[in-house]
Amino acid sequence: MSAGSILRFAAASVMGAALLFGATPAPAQAAASVTSAADCHSEAWGPYDYGYAYTVSGKTSPLRAAGPYSGCTPYSVPAGTEFSIDCRMYNDVGNLWYHGDVFVNGQYRSGWMFSSNLTFPSGSNFAWC
User: At 128, which CATH number?
Assistant: First the structure.
């Protein structure tokens, strides 16, 4: 089991226990930065989830093609854009990201979106990457 898989399992276990015992999960951490482009990486992902969400209103949201970290080069996605979800994961610093696709300016773009930049997913099975 990879370190990323262990981290995702541990985070899911803590969240599940908190919900089971009526505790409110802690607020999401701020998206952590990486120190260089070489740090932009991700676990393998696949189209395990066919849900969707929308980018939040009032601002553009960055889509990160290289990996689920705020320091990875972004592509700006307009507010209210549909985001088709492939899967979700916690990055190395414990922040929840979704992988998926958007259709902007006549073309599809694939990448990672930080969870706070999305509305609550619809039609999702909340599959892990």
Answer: 2.30.30
Q: What is the pLDDT of residues 51-78, one digit of tens each?
A: 999 999 999 999 999 999 999 999 999 9
**pTM for this entry:** 0.71
Which tens digit of pLDDT belongs to each residue from 18-56?
A: 333 343 333 344 444 444 556 787 777 778 899 999 999
Whether 26 is in a domain gets the answer: no
- Max CA distance (Å), the chain: 47
Q: How far is CA 44 from CA 7, 19, 29, 87, 88, in A?
A: 15, 28, 23, 10, 11
45 within some domain: yes
